[in-house]
Amino acid sequence: MIRHTTPDAFNEMMHRESPLAAWLGLSLEEVGNGRALMRAPFRQELLRPGGVVNGPVIMALADYAMYAAVVGLDPNGARSVTTNMNTHFLRKTTGKDLLAEARALRAGRSQVVLDVLIRADGEVAPVAHVSGTYVYPATEARQ
Predict the structure, then answer these.
(1) Mean pLDDT along residues 33-58
(2) In angstroms, rounded to a whole number, what is the distance separating the alpha carbons of residues 14 and 51?
(3) pTM for the full predicted model
(4) φ, ψ dihedrals at 70, nearest 5°
């Protein structure tokens, strides 16, 4: 298994260096081989009018899950940044934790292309599908 971080190390880093991840309560559960599984716990304050989870919460979960997959691939991944993200909201969700399953589709020297499926905990049908691209800083491209 290729893994340059652990869930505990990643969670500690994110909660120390990213106030948004800490506020959302995001937690990486699995990482390795260009994949990551991240949880966002359900909280009432994350709902928008109509009682559904806010789209920006779903997008943040997807972005952090992609970031975890990239960091898991390469120790320089911690300095990578999102350059593209496309979100398809597929159905509403309420009252359950959300799980984001990210996977790297292609990891090149300077960028990683990923996709993410987000599901409500215990459900099969996805809430959202996200695709995105991360880039390494020019001085830290993968070898």
Answers:
(1) 94
(2) 28
(3) 0.93
(4) -65, -45
Q: Are 1 and 32 in contact (CB under 8 A)?
A: yes
pLDDT in tens, 97-132: 999 999 999 999 899 999 999 999 999 999 999 999
Which of 133, 132, 36, 42 minimizes the C-alpha distance to 87? Answer: 132
pLDDT in tens, 62-109: 999 999 999 999 877 888 999 999 999 999 988 999 999 999 999 998
For residues 103 and 114, the answer to whether their CB atoms sit within 8 Å is yes
Domains of the chain: 7-140 (3.10.129.10)
Structure tokens at 130: 């996200």
C-alpha gyration radius of the chain: 14
| Euclidean distance between CA atoms 61 and 59, whole angstroms | 5
DSSP state of 4: S
What one-character DSSP code corresponds to residue 82? E
Q: What are the helix (H) ranges across the chain? A: 7-17, 19-24, 55-73
